[in-house]
Design goal:
There is one protein chain. The protein is of the alpha+beta class. It contains 3 helices and 9 strands. The strands form 2 sheets. Strands 1, 4, 5, 6, 7 and 9 form a 6-stranded mixed β-sheet that branches. Strands 3-2-8 form a 3-stranded antiparallel β-sheet, with no helix packed on it. The radius of gyration is 15 Å and the shape is globular.
Length: 159
């Protein structure tokens, strides 16, 4: 995956030290209740599409951009499903990040499924019963986005 230019500039100053970043995830649910996933090129894992906000970018706009880039599908973010801080993550090159993730439930409005060879090894629509194995945090995001309660989930204070 291409590292955003602003992160490359920051890394010149902080090296591999922890960077605090804001990410967005899109749980795209089609009319047949299938979920859009892509197999990430950086680690081979299946995940909902998403990415890092560029400086000054609005979260919903960033998400729509990321989903289109990674899968070819155009979406409308409908609501925030959850807001969580993930544990620190170390990339294979030694860079450490910690991400505040904003997950949106999205509705597809067009486009055609396609691969972005830079960021995705595979893309597809999956029924909930057919979801490939993925990290628990990603499974939770999908569950919360499919939940019809309408309110965003967050880690309760003190937990």
């Amino acid at each position: 995956m291409a590292t955003p230019e602003f992160i490359l500039r920051l890394r010149k100053h902080v090296g591999h030290e922890l960077l605090w970043l804001t990410g967005v995830t899109g749980v795209v649910v089609d009319p047949g209740d299938r979920v859009l996933l892509h197999q990430r090129a950086d680690d081979g894992c299946w995940a909902p599409p998403g990415g890092i906000l560029e400086p000054g970018e609005q979260p919903a706009a960033a998400l729509a951009r990321e989903v289109a880039e990674e899968t070819g599908i155009r979406v409308v973010p409908e609501r925030v499903a959850c807001v969580v801080t993930e544990p620190p993550w170390t990339y294979s090159n030694g860079d450490v990040v910690q991400i505040l993730d904003i997950t949106f439930r999205c509705r597809p409005i067009g486009g055609e499924l396609r691969l972005d060879r830079d960021e995705s090894l595979d893309v597809g629509w999956f029924s909930v019963e057919e979801l490939p194995k993925m990290r628990e945090a990603l499974q939770r995001r999908i569950r919360l986005a499919r939940d019809e309660r309408g309110e965003a989930w967050y880690q309760p204070y003190g937990e």
